């Protein structure tokens, strides 16, 4: 189906929470049946189990499915392509540097920064909770409200 580096981040509008939902949405958008997606490598039943969240595919299988569906493997795994994530990380890093230099920031930037702190951590124990608490303190001063306080 082509070289993985040449794929786009999303072949069709896909809003899905799990890898299985993303596989199904992309498969349907591509007009493929489960049998067609499985090809000679897997069974229709295996694809069905992935789509229903009954089976977690290996990294190798994710890469193979991503190639078949013409998307980035990171998109299948996380819902965001590696290119998009890199671009967003760069923008957030730049914005955080401006804020650290004293440039005034708005509540949406602060909310995005809080969300980014959560997104950067693969697991809860890797989350920078001190940074999140500090951002909430700044947000409470910049845009006080019941949700923040």
Summarize the model shown.
It contains eight helices and no strands. It has helices at 19-29, 34-38, 44-51, 59-69, 73-78, 82-100, 107-120, 129-142.
Helicity, as a percent range: 55-70%
| Total strands | 0
- Number of contiguous helices: 8
Average pLDDT for all residues: 82
Strand content: under 5%
Class derived from helix and strand content: mainly alpha
Weakly predicted, low-confidence segments: 1-15
Return the string of H and E elements. Answer: HHHHHHHH
Radius of gyration: 19 Å
Structure description:
The protein is mainly α and 149 residues long. It has helices at residues 19-29, 34-38, 44-51, 59-69, 73-78, 82-100, 107-120, 129-142. Helix 6 (82-100) crosses helix 7. The model is unreliable at 1-15 (pLDDT under 50).
Outline the secondary-structure elements.
Blueprint: H1 19-29, H2 34-38, H3 44-51, H4 59-69, H5 73-78, H6 82-100, H7 107-120, H8 129-142
Helix pairs in contact: 6-7, 7-8
Which features does this protein show?
149 residues, 59% helix, 0% strand, disordered N terminus
């Amino acid at each position: 189906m082509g070289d993985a580096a040449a794929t786009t981040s999303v072949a069709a509008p896909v809003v899905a929470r799990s890898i299985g939902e993303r596989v199904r949405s992309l498969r349907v958008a591509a007009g493929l049946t489960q049998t067609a997606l499985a090809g000679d490598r897997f069974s229709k039943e295996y694809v069905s189990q992935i789509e229903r969240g009954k089976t977690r595919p290996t990294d190798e299988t994710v890469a193979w499915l991503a190639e078949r569906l013409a998307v980035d493997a990171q998109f299948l795994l996380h819902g965001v392509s590696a290119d998009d994530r890199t671009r967003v990380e760069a923008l957030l890093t730049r914005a955080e540097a401006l804020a650290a230099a004293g440039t005034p920031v708005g509540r949406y930037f602060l909310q995005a920064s809080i969300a980014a702190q959560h997104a950067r951590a693969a697991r809860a124990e890797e989350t920078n909770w001190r940074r999140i608490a500090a951002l909430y303190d700044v947000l409470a001063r910049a845009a006080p409200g019941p949700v923040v306080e």
